[in-house]
Amino acid sequence: MSDLSAYLPEIPGLPGLFVRNIYAIGRNYAAHARELNNPIPERPVIFTKPLASLTLDGFIRIPSFVREPHFETELVAVIGKTGKNIYREEALDHVAGYGIGIDVTARDIQQELKESSHPWFLAKGLDTFAPVSSFLPADVLPEFDKLTFTLDVNGERRQNGDPSLMLFPLPELIVRLSRYVTLQPGDLLFTGTPEGVGLLKENDHLHAELLSGRIVLDVRVKQSG
Ligand code: ZN
């Protein structure tokens, strides 16, 4: 294998693991699907965010053509072991650790794309639209469904996440995804946002916590011109 460390970012908190792909799940909490007037999906809604969207420096930069940038706070799992057609009972063995991330979404662009049945890529994949925290190894944390999280914007609580309410629990997401793609060490999986998504404005301060502060993510919003 080539030396990925030469060009891929190392995952903070998990030395030796480098970000490969960024997979994400849409509408994985019923209350969030309802707040955007979307149907409850029968199968997971799966999309990717490009590496260009990853940001580790604490800033989201919003281009001026985006009119409705939204925050979506999500539990992020890191894959630690290669797998294809993974069995459900073994799915969590493939998870190296957990962190928290914001799946920043240009809601206005996404709405246009949905209406024309186009992929969500241009709404989800912009530069800096995937800030992530440091990660902790799975073996020092409870199982995924206990990893509750919160988001405060400018000091006000906006989102509460309880992964036990996922429509498609993490093991099922891993099973599904691995039918289509070989999951690889360093792949990130954004597992969907709970209700409470909302608009971002310049200089907003986002403060997300996993397990009441075991993992913390602080991000500031900038207009990128
Ligand atoms: Zn999302």
Short description, anyone?
The protein has four helices and 16 strands. With 225 residues, it is an alpha+beta fold. It has one domain (2-223): Fumarylacetoacetase-like, C-terminal domain (Fumarylacetoacetate hydrolase, domain 2, Alpha-Beta Complex), CATH 3.90.850.10.
Bound molecules: zinc ion
Helix content: 10-25%
Mean pLDDT: 96
Strand content: 25-35%
What structural category characterises the helix and strand content?
alpha+beta
Q: What's the total helix number?
A: 4
- Order of SSEs: EHEEEEEEEHHEEEEHEEEE
Largest sheet, order of strands side by side?
2-1-13-6-7-10
**CATH architecture assignment name:** Alpha-Beta Complex
Explain the overall architecture.
This protein is of the alpha+beta class and 225 residues long. It has a single domain, classed as Fumarylacetoacetase-like, C-terminal domain (Fumarylacetoacetate hydrolase, domain 2, Alpha-Beta Complex), CATH 3.90.850.10. The chain has 4 helices and 16 strands. It has helices spanning 30-35, 107-115, 121-124, 170-180; strands at 22-26, 45-49, 54-55, 59-62, 69-71, 73-79, 95-102, 105-106, 130-131, 136-137, 149-153, 156-161, 188-190, 198-199, 205-210, 215-223. A 6-stranded mixed sheet has the order 2-1-13-6-7-10, with no helix packed on it. A 5-stranded mixed sheet has the order 4-16-15-11-12, with no helix packed on it. A 3-stranded antiparallel sheet has the order 8-5-14. Strand 15 (205-210) and strand 16 form a beta hairpin. The protein is globular, with a radius of gyration of 16 Å. The protein starts with 21 loop residues before the first strand and ends with a strand. The model has no long low-confidence stretch (mean pLDDT 96). It binds zinc ion. Zinc ion (ZN) binds next to strand 1. The site of zinc ion has 8 residues, from strand 1.
